Amino acid sequence: MQIRYISNARIPTEKAHGVQIMSMCEAFAGLGHDVELVVPRKHDYLKVNPFEYYGIKNNFRIRALPIFDIGSKSEKLPKLILALDLLSFIWKLRTSRIAEKGDILYLRDFQLLFAFSPRKNPLIIEVHHIYGWRKVFVRALRRATRVVAITQALKGDLVALGLSADRIIVAPDAVNISLFANVESRDIARRRLGLGVEKKIALYIGRIDKWKGTDVLFEATKHLRDIQIAVIGNGPEDTAVLQARHPTIVFLGFRPYREIADNQSAADVLVLPNSGKEEISARFTSPLKLFTYMASKKPIVVADLPSMREVLSEKEAFFFRADDPVDLARSIEEALDTTRSESRAESAYQKVLSYSWRARAKHILDAISAA
Predict the structure, then answer these.
(1) DSSP string of 8-68?
(2) What is the dihedral of CA 114, 371, 365, 94, to 10 degrees?
(3) Residue 2: which residues within 8 A CB-CB, separation 6 or more?
(4) pLDDT (tens digit, 9 = 90+) per residue, 70-96?
(5) Would residue 85 be called left, alpha or beta, if left means φ above 0 and alpha means ψ between -120 and 50 degrees?
(6) CATH class of this structure's domain 177-352
(7) Span 289-317, average pLDDT
(8) Of residues 318, 301, 313, 305, the one with CA closest to residue 276
(9) I need a surface site. Which of 103, 207, 299, 335 has the fewest CB within 10 A?
(10) In 138-169, which positions are buried (b, 16+ CB within 10 angstroms) versus exposed (e)?
(11) What does the DSSP assignment read for 65-94?
């Protein structure tokens, strides 16, 4: 089968969606399909080999279509610029005859559904949250052959918007377990990152953003003793600014995804502090870090939210009340209880073995074939 995976994304990118896109293409190809990833050629992509950057097998093709890209050249009118970039990509898709070269068109941006005719190709759209322009969003999704939702809660909301439940496939995110086969020791990882070898370390890896709960994590440090909070990731502010604002936290900045397993090895506890104040966090997200955390065999501290409960229970993780820094501090301290920590970390590892990208890709394709 020929699968054309199409996304209006920079590839490679430091953002998590790049990992998901590349991993799914690798998984589809690993199942024996002819896969081509189609993306716009943007000026601000990372100038590195995408397969090496993500630690992905080079078993599919990447085609970058030239577009009228001004998004990386100007800071003015960002929404208008993004819209123009998207329209340029849609126009290029319509004129490049991509639709003639794929048995399935797999899309990651709902706007791209307007670039193709559902009568000519099966259109599969993967959805990660409900968009603000709901009428346009629903109208677009009705053009799709099948819709892939990453959580049951998201499926429920799509049904409430009028989509047929039997057209929706629920497929949480996943992880490449092979990345965790030969990881650095705790002490070697800490020395490489410049972290103290003797300290207890609670580590967060991901974007620094309010809906990710990082503000709550920063506040929790005031209620912790003899536990070092470390953060790997970037955000709207420079690392130096964050370090000056929160001097007791170690900010390590952005690190390449291929280091993920080794970096997690440095932690005593891994923290996923998502906020419950935004729907995308509370109900829709299926964070990649959740699955990499589970693969690390490290104790996990996680916000008690429906999105997290779809995957984890008290058998695998330590929960805290979302947006409560005092309870987050309590949960981190509880997770350092080695007896319960080791058993829950092992249970999380055993559970995540079923969340592979290959299994996810097969589940989606089997559901499409059965339709």
Answers:
(1) -S-SS-SSHHHHHHHHHHHHHHHTT-EEEEEEEE-TTS-SS-HHHHHT--S-SEEEEEE--
(2) -20
(3) 33, 34, 36, 101, 102, 103, 104
(4) 655 444 456 767 778 888 899 989 888
(5) alpha
(6) alpha beta
(7) 97
(8) 305
(9) 103
(10) bebbeebebbbbbbebbbebbeeeebeeebbb
(11) EE----TTT--SSHHHHHHHHHHHHHHHHH
CA 85 to CA 211: how far, in whole Å?
26
Task: Looking at mean pLDDT, say which of 4-13, 22-31, 37-46 comes out highest.
Answer: 22-31
Identical topology for domains 2-174+356-370 and 177-352:
yes
pLDDT-based confidence at 228, cuts 50/70/90? very high
Q: What is the DSSP letter of 331?
A: H
- Give dist(CA 128, CA 172) in Å, integer: 10
Instruction: Tell the residue number behind the tokens 């429906």, with chain if given.
Output: 306
Give me the percent of the chain exceeding a pLDDT of 70: 95
Q: Does domain 2-174+356-370 have CATH number 3.40.50.2000?
A: yes
For residue 91, count other CB atoms closer than 10 A to its CB: 14
Distance CA 149, CA 206 (A): 22
List the chain domain ranges.
2-174+356-370, 177-352
